[in-house]
Design a protein that fits this description.
The chain is mainly alpha-helical. The chain contains 10 helices and 4 strands; from the N terminus they run E-E-H-H-H-H-H-E-E-H-H-H-H-H. Pfam families: 7tm_1.
Length: 359
């Protein structure tokens, strides 16, 4: 099908083969199911087991809630778009879907940053307890307040416009008349720096200090007790997981930002918008990160793995699972067009556990 863009250029919209269509439906259904089950299990394991209730684990639960927000609101709409190849937008749906995704990714990256700070302080200053439960609750409240505030512009900018080609309502990001025509580009850059560059840079710096503390720094002439060596080995295993999830986050969300920059800054080279395949892969990977987080807990940590198994077998009992922390304290619409019409901002969704996990 060929349509005209705003410049009058004929744009050919690709049509998936039946095999590709079925594959996309199955793939998205898998990550929706995995995210729903995995993040619910994370919450259950921490809430139903008293020894799992720690500052770090509460922050992890907060990230699971953010992932569930994305799973409940955005993934079903994306699956509907893939299944029907189109969607007739209502005003409420047009504003809520971008808003909830933005809130989810913003709260995830802010929570991840809080976890990185907590781990940095816990490892470099083990004798002091900086992040207590009251401070953690305050941090969680601030995370959601800031996330909602940052995402609120979508409630204004997302507007329903009748599409003469599809004969349906399209959901477009239109900042005028209150803001300038370039507001979409400015907002793209601000969100990219705030929720991708800054958190990655912050985590890189903090975990560099942690790596130096655990691997590099040695006190000459002092023998380390065996129990301390075991604790350090445990911390190193967890740190490897933290580094792995940071890399996974960066890989999952980078294609989304590439798609956004093509949509807003690459009109001359891509007059018809980002390639449909790139847009789909980008948002699929970003959404898949919600399902990857719980899986990484199970892969890297035996306590979470045991907790998941007990929960699935209905064997959850208080105090049954060993302590995790031993230290106190989419763009959616027609498959070919809406991915570039409704450009949602993405954030970091990476998960972490305590430095003192007993594997």
């Amino acid at each position: 099908m060929a349509t005209n863009n705003s410049s009058g250029i004929q744009c050919e919209h690709s049509t998936d083969t039946r095999t590709e269509h079925v594959f996309k439906l199955i793939a998205y259904s898998v990550i929706l199911f995995g995210s729903l089950v995995g993040n619910v299990l994370v919450i259950l394991v921490v809430v139903l087991n008293r020894h799992m209730r720690s500052v770090t684990n509460y922050l992890i639960v907060n990230m699971a809630v953010a992932d569930l927000l994305l799973t409940a609101f955005n993934m079903p709409v994306t699956i509907k778009v893939i299944a029907t190849r189109s969607i007739d937008w209502s005003v409420v749906l047009c504003k809520i879907i971008p808003f909830t995704q933005s809130v989810s990714v913003a709260s995830s990256v802010l929570t991840l940053t809080a976890i990185a700070i907590d781990r940095f302080l816990a490892i470099l200053y083990p004798l002091k307890r900086y992040v207590t439960f009251p401070i953690a609750y305050y941090m969680i409240a601030v995370v959601w307040i800031v996330s909602i505030a940052v995402s609120s512009p979508f409630l204004y900018a997302m507007k329903v416009v009748f599409n003469k080609n599809t004969k349906k309502n399209s959901c477009l990001e239109i900042w005028t008349p209150v803001f300038s025509e370039n507001a979409d580009k400015d907002f793209t850059v601000v969100v990219f720096v705030t929720f991708y560059v800054f958190p990655l840079s912050t985590m890189s710096v903090l975990y560099s200090f942690v790596i130096h503390n655990l691997w590099v720094r040695k006190v000459p002439g002092i023998q380390t007790p065996e129990n301390q060596l075991r604790a350090e080995r445990s911390k190193k295993k967890v740190l490897k997981m933290l580094l792995a999830v940071v890399v996974v986050f960066a890989l999952c969300w980078l294609p989304v930002y590439i798609t956004q920059f093509i949509a807003f800054f690459g009109q001359k080279r891509f007059p018809c918008g980002p390639p449909v395949t790139l847009a789909f892969v980008g948002y699929f990977l970003g959404h898949a990160n919600s399902a990857i987080n719980p899986a990484m807990y199970a892969i890297f940590n035996s306590n979470f793995r045991k907790g998941f198994r007990d929960a699935l077998l209905c064997r959850c009992r208080r105090n049954r699972v060993a302590p995790l922390v031993t230290k106190p304290g989419p763009v959616v619409g027609t498959e070919s067009t809406v991915l570039r019409q409704v450009t949602l901002r993405a954030g970091s969704k990476v998960s972490a556990t305590s430095d003192s996990v007993v594997p």
